[in-house]
Amino acid sequence: MRWSDERILTTHTGSLPRPPELTRLYVRRARGEAIDPAELDRLGKTALRRIVDKQIEAGVDIGNNGEQQREAFFLYVRNRMSGFGDSWQRWPRGDVERYPLLKQQMAQMLAAREAVGNYQPPKAIGEVRYVDDTELNAEIADFRTALEAKPIGFVEPFMTAPSPGIIAAAMKNEYYDSEEAYLAAVAAAIQVEYEAIVKSGFLLQLDCPDLALERHLTYDDRPVGQFLAFVERVVAAINKAIVNVPRDRVRLHVCWGNYEGPHDRDVPLAEILPLLEQANVGGFVLPFANPRHQHEYRVLQKFPLADDQIIAAGVIDDLTGFVEHPEVVADRLENVARDILVNNAGIRKYEKVDEASAASWNEILSVNLMSYVFCAKAAVPVMRRNKGGAIVNVASVRSVVAGGGNLQYDTTKAAVDCGGGDKTSSLAPGYGSLLTNILQWSFEPRLVVHVGADQLPAVAAQLFDEIRNCPTMQKRSVSDLDEVIFPASHCASSRKPKRDALASSP
After folding, report:
1. pLDDT(224) > 60
2. What is the rounded distance in angstroms from the CA atom of residue 345 to the CA atom of residue 363?
């Protein structure tokens, strides 16, 4: 999976508008009418070539086939899998139900639009198996052919496939004894597509609106705990289905429904992200541009991704007629991609004060102190340009608790410690800092960077207890311990560390 190493790469969530004449054929086929397969194939390939051209022209770096050769983002599986038939009316959207006039207006708009709707899907009335990969193989081959015809194509191409959860939730189970059995069958079937897409050299995107959307559909009148249990079951099913797919070749897309509605029944991202992060994927595609979820980039600070994962942040809302100003888009990107510099360096020499040479002092000063200054000097312009960031300076307990034979080390760490608060803010005005001299007693750095403000009191209390119980400190006055850890955030520059207690220890 390509990362934005040299510049910000652009992508989208997969489904792009289909030409009216192609959509018309899909609608007729969904109704059970006879259509000309050759004409469907011709229109599908034409639409594919056109949509690839449009993406390249628009500057999309990680693009796809626009799902042009599918009638809808998950309903197409009924043509490739067995067991689906009849139809039923999907559960209503809980947010729209609260506004009768809006519900009526939306129904009128949907009735006037020619499209294959997702709200009258088929049901599972027999065994679900993947029985025909003809369309899948043709779709992959056609996309490859379209890309090969372009001298300059995508930085990385991707293809989508639906989550077993959206299929199981939308295509009502009337065959299996339990939801778990149905999910397992769907996951085993769709696994064929997951592996075929990756084997063909494309990045796989799992389309999983169910992991958020179903809260205000299927589970709208149930406790949130039941919905979260559903999310956990679906993630487990996904992990089984991608067991043969390398983690860095799959990204997971979650949303609350691609429709212009109130969305005031949406489940908060904070409630589902810890469960989403159980998925064995290399990245997540999440929307941060709509008015209901734009603020939730903060959740990423509380529940950070793994080091080998990326976030593809949705920063343009396709459900509004507004064309976002570039500065608005930039702000949204910057909110998600905060810069944090962690300065953590230290060497020591066991020398007595009358034996330490000037060269020895200069070496330790260069590493333990000046490296922090030079790293901050390089980082601050980037933080200023990005209008945000944090500098984390790691000091040492030796800055306040002297020890024999470490004069240069203790001195430099005390200098770092004194560089917190106002002086760190002076390097990066207004951007905040976090300084801690709380270290494990083996003198290895112990720093909790991703600590939410609500967690700080408990974390600080635990660390203070460890200091009080340390044999070295038990002989010292530590009854007045106060703040020695504060958050790396915009407000941190106004929250000075109170070092009086530690500094006054004899």
Report:
1. yes
2. 12
